[in-house]
């Protein structure tokens, strides 16, 4: 059973990772992240998470409710308990969700290593220029929901383990394997060498999505809303679009990904 450590002082050095959360979010956490809310923390502590918690900060009014979850922690993971007022002072804003976890992440494996670990039949997603944390969270939630095996991110993508992205993903960011492309990586060549058929989504795609069949190894690429994927990249791969009513040419990228992934997974 982990130790429950009462905390009353916002300057207590033991809870430094939780102090002024929003400000720390902006400057980065150097190999760590914050998981917020009971649903997300349950994912972090569950069997499908790819990361481990180093500590928890819990409002003392939530301790009884969270006791079964806390009991699953190893003895070396402290649980800091504070009154709601003290917790708000520590975090720097009213934290109504009542529980935070400080998590540790291993080094990024790199795109080539991640691709080499995938099964013979695989579905993966490539993200380019996704800078909005809500969209990133939605994309990763869809990836988990439709069984995507891995996600590749270009250098312009925001951090999937940013607190808001994790929260919007409902914890999926903690379960879906991802790696960031290096500056020297050619994503299309990398995917094709790994045996993937590459499909890019664009309002100007050459064929309707409904005409696309699922290959054994499929990689589907999405770009940011507005600029979309680079023309040079689109010119090298198969492209598809989602047919829409007259006057509309695109969806929110997370909504588009749900349609595309559903189509590909429904094909078996």
* Cα gyration radius (Å): 20 Å
Number of helices: 10
Distance between the termini: 44 Å
Domains counted in the coordinates: how many?
2
Estimated helix fraction: 25-40%
Strand order of the largest sheet: 8-7-6-11-9-12-10
Just give the CATH class of the largest domain: Alpha Beta
Described by strand count, sense and barrel closure, the largest sheet is: 7 strands, parallel
Averaged pLDDT: 93
CATH topology of the largest domain: Alpha/beta knot
User: How many β-strand runs?
Assistant: 12
Poorly predicted runs of 5 or more residues:
none
Question: Can you say what the CATH homologous superfamily of the largest domain is?
Answer: SPOUT methyltransferase, trefoil knot domain
The assigned structural class equals: alpha/beta
Order of helices and strands: EHEHEHEHEHEHEHEHEEEHEH
Q: What global shape is seen? A: elongated
